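Input protein
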Amino acid sequence: MTRTTSASKNGPRSQRFHKFWLKVTAVIVGSFGPIFFLGTIPEFSGAASWTMDLLSWPIDGNHDFLAPTTRFLSALTGGFLLGWGVMIWCLSAWVYDKAPEFVRKSVIVGILAWFVLDSAGSFASGNSTNILFNILILLLAVGPLWFPAKE
């Protein structure tokens, strides 16, 4: 008979920690939603403009959100990202206990799909440095979810 310690019940490979990390992932993904939503309002578009400038390194001030098409795309992006973040949070709160492995895999597959398409689009649009930011976001968002929980 193996003895379960408190550390193993709460470690990075535990279901409890995975459930917590899903909320971290939800915040990482969802936090971009309000930033891009603000890009729809010229007076408040500074955060979205700065974020785009950072993600397309170097920071040179060449991004603005004055064009109506850019503002519309920012609205769509903000809505999708906030909705995706809320969905991940809800999966952790309402579904994870019933199907932890299916939730874990679903979130990972969704993040990988984002990573591949966003990175390919970044490359195609001449913003290859965003791929480095995508790698960082991928690693942070997935974190310990890469591996199944041991419980």
Q: What stands out?
A: The helical segments are 6-10, 15-30, 32-38, 46-55, 68-95, 100-124, 129-142. Residues 68-95 form the longest helix (28 residues).
